[in-house]
C-alpha cells in the first residue's frame, strides 16, 4: 500500500513539474510573440508621421454684364497646369528634371510659363528696367546683399537648387526662373504653383500621358476669366492678374481678406479691382493628409461659392455708337480743318439725369481689353496715351461751359437777378488790366449772356461774387474732388491761391477774372462737366454718377440688390426754381443758334439746352459742349470734348440720335422717329415730283425745319 502511495506521489510530482515547464514555455512563447508583433506594431505607430494640410479651392469669379445682361467679361472652363508640393520630388535634382521635362513640352506646344523674375533671359544677365522694387525683393528673398548683381542672383539660385552643368546656360536660366517663381509664390503643401494657364485639350492630353515621368505635375479644370466684348468701357472694366509681390499680398490680408493665397488672381484695375470683394466670391477648402511622405487622403471640407455678377448701367450698343460719334467727329476735323490735323483725342459722357447712371462713356484713343491683356506693352506705348481714360481722368480747362456755375452763384446769392444788366463794350478794365469779349453786346442780362457767351458779363459778376463764393459753388457742383465713380475718377483742381502755390506759380488778383469764365488754372474732367449739366437739369440736385445698376448671384438668375440714387449735394438752395429757369433759358437759346443742317438742333421736336466753350490749352484751344435734353423734361445730360479741336457742339445731335435709337420709347427716341418719318415722306414726295407725279405743296403735318438751320455757324472764339 505504501508503495502504491509513493508511486502516485511521484507521478503527481512529475506531472506538476511537467505542467510547470510547459506553462513556462507557453509564457515565454507569448512574451516573444508580444515583443515581436504587438510591441513592434506600437513602435511602428510611434514612428508614423502624419500631417494634414489645407488647400484652397478657387471660387468662380462673378461676371460683369451691361444693362441688358450682355456679358462684357465672363468665365470659361479651362485647364491650368499646376505643380503640387505633395507629389513633387523633395530631391532638388529630381525636381529640376521634372521642371525641365514639362518646360520642353510647353515649348513644343507653344505655351509660355510663369517666370516674373526681373532678370534678363540671356547672358550677360542684367536686371530688367523699371523694376527696382522687384529687384530689391529678389535680393531679399535670396538673402543677398543690396549690391548683388543679376549674375549673382542666378548663381545663387543655381547653387541653392543644385542646377548642375548637365543643363545648358539657357536651360539653367529657365529652371532658375521657375524655381524663383515657386519661391515667390510660397509653393507649399497648402499652395500649389500655377506653371501655365489656359492650356488646350490637345496639350492637356499629352501632359496626362507623361505624368508618370513628371511627379507633381497636374492639370486642374477651373474657371478662366475671358473678355466677351473688349471694346465696351475697357478702362472702367479693368483686368485681373496674379498677386505680384509679398507687399501686395500683405495689403490684401490687411484689408480683411484672410483667405487669399499667392497663387490667386485678383483685380488689378477698374471695376475688377474696385469690386474685388464682391466679384471674387468665397473660396472653398480641401484637406490633404500626408502619412510618412505619402498622400493618404484628399477630402473637400468646404465648397467654393461663386462671386456676384455685376450688372452695369451702360448699354453696350449705345457705348459703341458713342465711340463712333467721337471717332467720326475727330476724323472730320482732321480732314476738313487745317488747324485740327492733330485732333485725335476726346471724350463723350452721357448720363441718365434721374440718378446720374452712366449710359455711355467714350474716350479717344481707346483699346480693346482683350488686346491689352494679350500685349500690354504694345498698347501702352501707342501714341496719345490710350491707357488714359479722358472721360474720367483727362484734365482740362472748361472754358465757357463753366459760366452756368458763375451764373448760379450770382443768382442764388442775389448778387444779380434775372433782370440785372451789365454793359459789354468788348473791352473791360479791372484795376490796371484789360480784358476782352468776342462781341459788343451792350447792355445784357444773365440769360442772354449765357446764350451769346458774353465774357464781360461774367467778368463783372465774378469780381462782385469774390473768390470764396465762387469756389463754394464750384465745390457744390462737384469740381475740385473725385465724384466717387466706382471704377475711380480724378478730382482735378480749382483756380485759387492754394492751387497756384502747389503748382509753384504766383497768384495775381486778375486770376479771379479768368476763373469766372473757366480759364486760369482750373482743371476738370468731362465726367465732372456732364455732372454739372445734369445738376442744372435737376434744378440743383447733384447725384453721384455710377456705373453699377445691380448685383446678382453668380448665375445671374437672382437679383441681390439694386444701386439706389445717391443725392450728394443740393446747389442753389435759396431760389433754385428761378435760378435754373433763367440758366435753362440761356442754354436753350445757345442750342437754337443755327448750325449746318446735319448738326442743327432746331426742328427736332424737343428743346435742347447746351453751353459751349473753347478753352485755352497747351494744344492752342480745346472744344467743349455740355447740355441736356429734352430741356422741358430732361432724360439725359452730356459732355463732349475734343483736344485741340473745334465744333464739339456738332456732336450733340448725333449723341441724342444714337440714344434715341437705343431707347425708342423715350421722348428723344420718339422725336427722332418722327423726324425720320418726315424725312422719308419728303424723299417720297421729291421722287414723285421728279417723276412728274407729285404735288409742289407739302402734306399737312410734314413741314420742313426752319431754313435757318443751314446758316453758317462758326465756333465761338476763346472764352
Question: What can you see in these coordinates?
Answer:
The chain has 719 residues and is of the alpha+beta class. The protein folds into two domains: 260 residues, Penicillin-binding protein 2a (Domain 2) (Alpha-Beta Complex); 395 residues, DD-peptidase/beta-lactamase superfamily (Beta-lactamase, 3-Layer(aba) Sandwich). It is built from 23 helices and 25 strands. The chain is elongated, with a radius of gyration of 38 Å.
Write the layout of secondary structure elements.
Elements: H1 2-47, E1 50-57, E2 64-65, E3 71-83, H2 92-109, H3 132-141, H4 150-160, H5 169-184, E4 193-199, H6 201-209, E5 217-227, H7 234-237, E6 240-242, H8 246-254, E7 265-267, H9 270-274, H10 276-280, E8 284-291, E9 294-302, E10 309-312, H11 316-336, E11 346-352, E12 357-364, H12 369-374, H13 376-380, H14 403-412, E13 421-424, E14 427-430, E15 433-436, E16 442-445, H15 446-452, H16 455-465, H17 467-476, H18 497-503, H19 511-515, H20 526-537, E17 541-543, E18 548-552, E19 559-562, E20 567-570, H21 576-592, E21 609-613, E22 616-617, E23 620-621, E24 623-629, E25 636-642, H22 652-662, H23 667-690
Helix pairs in contact: 2-5, 11-22, 14-16, 14-17, 14-21, 15-21, 22-23
3D shape? elongated
| Count of beta strands | 25
* Estimated structural class: alpha+beta
How many domains comprise the coordinates? 2
The level 1 CATH classification of the largest domain is Alpha Beta
CATH names the topology of the largest domain as: Beta-lactamase
Q: What's the CATH H-level homologous superfamily of the largest domain?
A: DD-peptidase/beta-lactamase superfamily
Give the CATH architecture of the largest domain.
Answer: 3-Layer(aba) Sandwich
Radius of gyration, in Å, reads: 38 Å
Mean pLDDT score, rounded?
Answer: 88
Question: What is the number of helices?
Answer: 23
Span between N and C termini?
152 Å
Amino acid at each position: 500500500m505504501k508503495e502504491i502511495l509513493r508511486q502516485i506521489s511521484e507521478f503527481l510530482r512529475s506531472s506538476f513539474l511537467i505542467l510547470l515547464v510547459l506553462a513556462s514555455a507557453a509564457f515565454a512563447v507569448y512574451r516573444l510573440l508580444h515583443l515581436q508583433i504587438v510591441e513592434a506594431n506600437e513602435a511602428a505607430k510611434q514612428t508614423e508621421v502624419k500631417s494634414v494640410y489645407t488647400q484652397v479651392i478657387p471660387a468662380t469669379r462673378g461676371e460683369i454684364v451691361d444693362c441688358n445682361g450682355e456679358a462684357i467679361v465672363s468665365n470659361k472652363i479651362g485647364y491650368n497646369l499646376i505643380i503640387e508640393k505633395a507629389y513633387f520630388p523633395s530631391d532638388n535634382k529630381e525636381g529640376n528634371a521634372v521642371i525641365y521635362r514639362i518646360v520642353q513640352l510647353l515649348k513644343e506646344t507653344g505655351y509660355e510659363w510663369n517666370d516674373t523674375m526681373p532678370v534678363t533671359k540671356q547672358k550677360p544677365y542684367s536686371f530688367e528696367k523699371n523694376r527696382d522694387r522687384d529687384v530689391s525683393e529678389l535680393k531679399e528673398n535670396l538673402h543677398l546683399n543690396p549690391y548683388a548683381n543679376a549674375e549673382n542672383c542666378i548663381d545663387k539660385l543655381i547653387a541653392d537648387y543644385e542646377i548642375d552643368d548637365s543643363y545648358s546656360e539657357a536651360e539653367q536660366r529657365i529652371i532658375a526662373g521657375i524655381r524663383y517663381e515657386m519661391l515667390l509664390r510660397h509653393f507649399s503643401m497648402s499652395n500649389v504653383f500655377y506653371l501655365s494657364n489656359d492650356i488646350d485639350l490637345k496639350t492637356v492630353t499629352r501632359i496626362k500621358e507623361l505624368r508618370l515621368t513628371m511627379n507633381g505635375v497636374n492639370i486642374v479644370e477651373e474657371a478662366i476669366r475671358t473678355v466677351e466684348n473688349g471694346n465696351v468701357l475697357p478702362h472702367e472694366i479693368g483686368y485681373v492678374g496674379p498677386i505680384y509681390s509679398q507687399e501686395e499680398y500683405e495689403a490684401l490680408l490687411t484689408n480683411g481678406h484672410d483667405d487669399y493665397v499667392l497663387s490667386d488672381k485678383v483685380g488689378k484695375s477698374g471695376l475688377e479691382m474696385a469690386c474685388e470683394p464682391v466679384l471674387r466670391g468665397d473660396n472653398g477648402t480641401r484637406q490633404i493628409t500626408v502619412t510618412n511622405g505619402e498622400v493618404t487622403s484628399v477630402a473637400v471640407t468646404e465648397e467654393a461659392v461663386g462671386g456676384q455678377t455685376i450688372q452695369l448701367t451702360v448699354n453696350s450698343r449705345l457705348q459703341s455708337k458713342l465711340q463712333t460719334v467721337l471717332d467720326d467727329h475727330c476724323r472730320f476735323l482732321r480732314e476738313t480743318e487745317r488747324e485740327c490735323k492733330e485732333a485725335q483725342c476726346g471724350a463723350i459722357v452721357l448720363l441718365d439725369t434721374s440718378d446720374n447712371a452712366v449710359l455711355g462713356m467714350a474716350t479717344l484713343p481707346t483699346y480693346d481689353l482683350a488686346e491689352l491683356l494679350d500685349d500690354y506693352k504694345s498698347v501702352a506705348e501707342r501714341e496719345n496715351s490710350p491707357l488714359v481714360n479722358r472721360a474720367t481722368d483727362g484734365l482740362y480747362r472748361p472754358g465757357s461751359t463753366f459760366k452756368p456755375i458763375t451764373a448760379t452763384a450770382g443768382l442764388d446769392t442775389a448778387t444779380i437777378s434775372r433782370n440785372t444788366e451789365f454793359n459789354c463794350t468788348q473791352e473791360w478794365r479791372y484795376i490796371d488790366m484789360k480784358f476782352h469779349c468776342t462781341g459788343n453786346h451792350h447792355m445784357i442780362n444773365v440769360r442772354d449772356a449765357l446764350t451769346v457767351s458774353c465774357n464781360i458779363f461774367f467778368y463783372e459778376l465774378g469780381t462782385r461774387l469774390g473768390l470764396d463764393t465762387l469756389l463754394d459753388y464750384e465745390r457744390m457742383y462737384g469740381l475740385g474732388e473725385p465724384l466717387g465713380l466706382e471704377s475711380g475718377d480724378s478730382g482735378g483742381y480749382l483756380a485759387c491761391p492754394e492751387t497756384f502755390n502747389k503748382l509753384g506759380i504766383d497768384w495775381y488778383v486778375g486770376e479771379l477774372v479768368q476763373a469766372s469764365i473757366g480759364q486760369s488754372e482750373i482743371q476738370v474732367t468731362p465726367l465732372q462737366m456732364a455732372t454739372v449739366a445734369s445738376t442744372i437739369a435737376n434744378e440743383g440736385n447733384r447725384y453721384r454718377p455710377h456705373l453699377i445698376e445691380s448685383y446678382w448671384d453668380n448665375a445671374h438668375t437672382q437679383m441681390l440688390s439694386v444701386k439706389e440714387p445717391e443725392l450728394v449735394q443740393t446747389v442753389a438752395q435759396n431760389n433754385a426754381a428761378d435760378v435754373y429757369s433763367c440758366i435753362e433759358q440761356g442754354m436753350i437759346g445757345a442750342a437754337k443758334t443755327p448750325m449746318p443742317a446735319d448738326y442743327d438742333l432746331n426742328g427736332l421736336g424737343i428743346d435742347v439746352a447746351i453751353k459751349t466753350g473753347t478753352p485755352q490749352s497747351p494744344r492752342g484751344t480745346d472744344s467743349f459742349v455740355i447740355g441736356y435734353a429734352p430741356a422741358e423734361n430732361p432724360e439725359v445730360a452730356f459732355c463732349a470734348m475734343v483736344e485741340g479741336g473745334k465744333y464739339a457742339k456738332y456732336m450733340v445731335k448725333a449723341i441724342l440720335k444714337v440714344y434715341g435709337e437705343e431707347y425708342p420709347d423715350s421722348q428723344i427716341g420718339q422725336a427722332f422717329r418722327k423726324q425720320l418719318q418726315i424725312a422719308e415722306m419728303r424723299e417720297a414726295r421729291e421722287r414723285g415730283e421728279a417723276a412728274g407725279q407729285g404735288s409742289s405743296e407739302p402734306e399737312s403735318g410734314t413741314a420742313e425745319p426752319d431754313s435757318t438751320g443751314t446758316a453758317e455757324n462758326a465756333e465761338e472764339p476763346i472764352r
